[in-house]
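Sat 14:20. Reprocessing the chain from the morning session after the first attempt stalled halfway. Input below, unchanged.
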Amino acid sequence: MKIVMLGSGAAGSVFAAYLRRGGADVWLVDKYKAHMDKIRDEGLRFCTPDGEEVLTGFKTCSKLSEVCENVDMIIIMVKATQTDELLAESKNCISDNTVLVSLQNGLGNEDIMAKYVSRDRILYGSGLIGTELRCPGVCVSKPEEGIQMRFGALEKSPMSEKAGKALEELFNKGGCNASFDEDVRPYVWKKVIANCGYNATSAVLRLKVGEVFADKNGREIVLNIWKEGAEVAKAAGVGDLWPLLEAEEENIEKSFGTYYPSMAQDAVLHKRPTEIEFLNGAISRYGKKLGVKTPYNDVLTLLISCIEDNYDKQYFA
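Finished this time. Tokens:
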């Protein structure tokens, strides 16, 4: 199976490593030239709690337009804010048999993909991950229990069913615990809501995930964001996610407690565009549509958006 990994940073490289180990023919696409060149010349060094190995045979390039053959699948791992712009370069590699897969953060990525292929050729999902790009050509999968991956079809069809089962098999054969689910919405929404709680809060408070939970006020903010998200999910017909979110708290602290999550890195460390509109902003929009009040998510969305719009004016480091 020919697969493009669109966005081959830390998480994309780790996912690609599992797929390559599973037997896939993988294109890596990323603008980080030193990383792409290192993999092209020497292979990808893949580090896990069980050891490390060098994987070879990848094709690499910096733009999707440089992929010069039709492929079976494009897995999208770029920031949600970049999806539309980068998929616009896909005409050289998308055929009538190509399936698009989003393993990104947030809600709404699948609607962007539907501009490029029909909805029955779209898979989407998420994973419990902890990854690092240690240096060019070296990626790390951190969780002791390994990466957990779940995905499903946006709309069922013979093509999405075949692609989903093939992707599940490749991931599992490569050592990733993957599942192609009948209904992946509860898992995706739970991951998004959990992210909404600690991601934006860490960015605003400038604290690591564990430090947010250790502070009684920080933890209260997170739990209220989660409660709002759970009410929105219930109103959207996804189900009652609150018990799952409550059970997730200890695991989040254990797995990600020492991390600055992605939004903190974007908004505080690097002053880059954030994914706030696909996280708390999406919960707020769904809440308005469904008649569910989301004051905590509303305020966090406004705060992060204001920070993002004024990077050049901030008076602190």
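Residues 2-180 form a domain with the Rossmann fold fold (CATH 3.40.50.720).
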